[in-house]
Amino acid sequence: MDASTILSRLQFAFTVSFHYLFPQLTMGLALLILILKTLYLLRKDERYNTAGHFWARIFAITFVMGVVTGIPLEFQFGTNWSRFSVYAGDIIAQTLAMEGAFAFFLESAFLGIFLFGEHVFGQKMHWFSAFMVWLGTWVSGAFIIASNAWM
């Protein structure tokens, strides 16, 4: 292998190693936030709502970092792994596109409602937005696992 191939694959390895931290963290945090929000609605204990807001801020930061590191990965498949992309691109492209179109937009839209719309939409919609964020993170994980199954 020539030096440019080795360097591009090292770049990909660094990006994927850094990105790998964020999807699992957001999947777990989304479930935790949904549980805290559910407990708040059932028990009317403000501590659960406060904890949910705390973890939502951390979720938002990890979500942004996951996006910042995840989008370059899709481009690096085509540039750093071109022979693989030619071979399995029809499958990989569909699952990655569905992850972006369905799961990512679902997560990001309802994350905005969850972070900024509690007082505007009320507690039931706030819970529903937490549920949709959780659903989006887990559907996103399913699409990524489907993509990884072809690697």
Approximate shape: elongated
DSSP strand content = under 5%
Structural class: mainly alpha
* Topology pattern, helix = H, strand = E: HHHHHH
User: Segments where pLDDT lies below 50 for 5+ residues?
Assistant: none
Measured between the Cα atoms of the first and last residue, the distance is 21 Å
Number of helical segments?
6
Described by strand count, sense and barrel closure, the largest sheet is: none
Helix content: over 70%
Kindly state the number of beta strands.
0
Mean pLDDT: 92
What is the CA-atom radius of gyration, in angstroms? 18 Å
Give an account of the 3D structure.
The chain is an all-alpha fold and 151 residues long. The protein is built from six helices and no strands. Helix 2 (21-43) runs antiparallel to helix 3 (46-80) and helix 4 (82-116) runs antiparallel to helix 6 (123-148). The chain is 93% helix and 0% strand.
Main attributes of the structure:
mainly alpha, 151 residues
Could you write a compact summary of the structure shown?
The mean pLDDT is 92.
Question: Secondary-structure blueprint of this entry?
Answer:
Blueprint: H1 3-19, H2 21-43, H3 46-80, H4 82-116, H5 118-121, H6 123-148
Helix pairs in contact: 1-3, 2-3, 2-6, 3-4, 4-6
